[in-house]
Amino acid sequence: MVRSVRFLLVALALFSAPPLYAVQVDEILPDAKLEARARAISHDLRCMVCQNQSIDDSEAPLARDLRLLVRERLKAGDSDTQVVDYMVARYGEFVLLRPRMSWHTAILWAAPLAILIIGVFAIVFSVLRRSARPGLPETEALTEGEKLKLNAIASQLDGA
């Protein structure tokens, strides 16, 4: 009984824990709405050091600087779009975890579809080629002479 209660308390503590972010206490804005906007923006910006993490999740010093920059821009009165545009202008489109659809990123968006279409055409072409391929030629019936030779060979093998 005591073990099951301990287990339940530990499980409750583990599952009720909030997600961990790299945002430090001194970075958090006093205005909850502004902080929520900052978190939403920083969740979509790439850490240039880690590259597969958002600046919200990264503990790299550069990510901290970028989080502070986002918060400064929001405190200055910029909209969310203006903050993201500022970061893109300063660091390039690579700073976005989800690239925007444009002509120079079209290959990123079109490549999976193109590969799928090419694969479907390859499979259809392969199936059509196999069905169009002629089968084995029909074997003609054995003549009487060939049947006699075959029986003679078979009888020699049986006798040996």
Describe what you observe in this structure.
- The chain has 160 residues and is mainly alpha-helical.
- Among the domains are: 71 residues, Helicase, Ruva Protein, domain 3; 26 residues.
- It is built from six helices and no strands.
Gyration radius, in Å: 35 Å
The top level CATH class name of the domain at 27-97 = Mainly Alpha
Amount of beta strand: under 5%
Stretches where pLDDT is under 50 for at least 5 consecutive residues are none
Query: Looking at the structure, what is the overall shape?
Result: elongated
- What is the count of β-strands? 0
CATH fold-level topology of the domain at 27-97: Helicase, Ruva Protein, domain 3
The run of helices and strands is: HHHHHH
| CATH hierarchy: architecture of the domain at 27-97 | Orthogonal Bundle
CATH superfamily of the domain at 27-97: Cytochrome C biogenesis protein
Helix content: 55-70%
Structural class estimated from helices and strands: mainly alpha
Query: What is the number of helical segments per DSSP (H or I, 4+ residues)?
Result: 6
Let me know the average pLDDT: 82
Distance between the termini: 83 Å
Biggest sheet record: none
Distinctive features:
heme; membrane; CcmH/CycL/NrfF/Ccl2_sf; 160 residues; cytochrome c-type biogenesis; Helicase, Ruva Protein, domain 3; elongated; metal-binding; mainly alpha
